[in-house]
Amino acid sequence: MRILIDLGHPKHFHVFRNAALQLEKRGHQIFWAARDKDVVVELLEIHKLRYAILSTASTGLLKFTGELVKHDYELYRMSKQLDLDLMIGTSIFAAHVSKITRAKSIIFNDDDAAAWKILAPLTYPFADTIVTPDCLRKDNFGKRHVKHNSYHELAYLHPNHFSPDPEALAEVGVEEGERYFIMRLVSLQAIHDVGEAGLSVPMRRKLVDRLAQLGKVFISAEEVLPPEFREYKIAASPDKIHHLLYYATMFIGDSQTMTAEAAVLGTPAIRCNTFVGRISYLEELEHKYGLTYGFLPSDEERMFDKVMELLNSRDLKKTWQEKRNRMLQDKIDLTQWMVDFIDNYPESLYDYQRGMNK
Question: 10-25 and 334-343 are packed helices; what angle lies between their axes, rounded to 10 degrees?
Fold first, then answer.
C-alpha cells in the first residue's frame, strides 16, 4: 500500500516512526507530511526523511480555521498526486481528505473526546477507523472504533524499541547517577487548549529556585523563556530528550505528553494543569500504576509539597522502575500491534469487529 503519515505534533513522529520502518520492510511505501510545530521538522531532518510541510501550527480559532482549509487542500493535492491508499495519524486533516479521495483514514488518538472538545467533532465523524487505548472511559464510536491495551508512548518507549543511552547525558553536562530535574512548560495556545491553564509563573519560579538547590534544572519550553529562566533552557537535541527523561530524578510540568513519557520510562512525573482528572490514560498511569501525580493549578502548593515529599524518600528511582515493570507486564508493544493492524487493513478491522483481533 501507499501510506501517508500526517503529523500534527512532534510526539506523533515518535508514535509512528518505528511502525513506518517495519511497514516499509513489509513492502509498503511510506510518505510523510506535517504541520510545522515545535521540533517536528528538526526530527524529520535528523532522521533524513523526505517530507512535505503542509501548514504552520496556528493559535486561536480564526487562524486555526485558515490553517485547517490550507492543510486540507494541500493534503488533498498530495493524496491525488501520490495515489494514496491509506492516511494515518492523529490527523483531523486525514479524516477530512479521506472522504473526498479513494484513500482510507485510520485516526489514532489517546485523548478522551470530552477533553478534545473542539477537534473531536471535526475529526471522528469523517474517519474511516478510530483507534484509541482501551482505558478511555466513555468513548464509543461504534463499529469504526478499535481499542488496544497500550499507550501511545509505548510505541516508542517500550523496551522493545528504546534502550536508554547514558552518553546522552554529556549533552547537558551531567553524569549517570547525578541528580537533575526536567521541566516542560507548554504554551497552552493550541486550539484544543482554549480555556485551559497550567503552572503559574510564581510556581514555576518557586520550583526552579528550590530544585536548583538540589540538583541541575533543565527546562524545555514551547515558547521563548523569559530572562529569569533562560539559563535553565535544555540544550540537548530533540532526539536525546527521552534518554534524558529516563535518567532524570524527576519530571515536572504542564505537558500531558512528557508526563506520560516520563511515567512509562519509570521517572517520577508531576503534572499541573486543568486537564487533570479528564485524561483517562494519565488517570490510569496515576491511580492504577502510581507512576505520576496530577494537580490542578488551584492545588499548586499541595503539588510542591508532593515534590518535596518524593525527593526526601528513599530509593525513589528504584521504586518507580518497579512500578514501571508492573505496568509493562500489563501493556502490549503498540508498534507491533499497529504494524499488524495496518499491514492487514481493512481485513484487520473486520476481524476486530468479529472479535477475532482484540
Answer: 60
Q: What is the pLDDT of residue 63?
A: 84
Phi, psi of 278 (to 5 degrees): -120, 0
- Which residue matches cell numbers 498526486? 81
Find all residues with CB under 8 Å of 290, minimum gap 6, and list them. Answer: 323
Q: Report all structural domains of the chain as residue ranges with CATH numbers, in order of start.
A: 2-157+332-353 (3.40.50.2000), 167-330 (3.40.50.2000)
Residue of 336, 291, 287 lying closest to 310 (CA atoms) = 291
CA distance 249 to 252: 10
| Closest listed residue to residue 209, CA positions, set 234, 167, 181, 240 | 181
Q: How many degrees, rounded to 5, is the angle at CA 281 between CA 331 and CA 350?
A: 65
- 242, with CB counted inside 10 A (0-12, 13-18, 19+), is buried
CB 134 within 8 A of CB 145: no
147: its cell numbers: 481499542
Closest alpha carbon to 7 in 69, 76, 79, 93: 93
Give the three cell numbers for residue 218: 533543565
Q: What is the pLDDT of residue 358?
A: 54
When mean pLDDT is compared across 138-147, 182-191, 219-228, 322-331, the lowest value belongs to 182-191
Residue 272 CA to its chain's centroid (Å)? 17
CA distance linking residue 67 with residue 69, whole number of Å: 5
- Strands across the sheet with 216-221, in order? 216-221, 180-185, 250-253, 269-272, 292-295
104-108 and 129-133 strand pairing: parallel
pLDDT at 156: 97
pTM (2 d.p.): 0.93
Query: Distances from the Cα of 17 to the Cαs of 103, 130, 157, 165, in angstroms?
Result: 21, 19, 12, 19
Residue 23 in contact with residue 343, Cβ under 8 Å? yes
Tell me if 5 sits within 8 A of 78, measured CB to CB: no
CA distance 81 to 79: 6
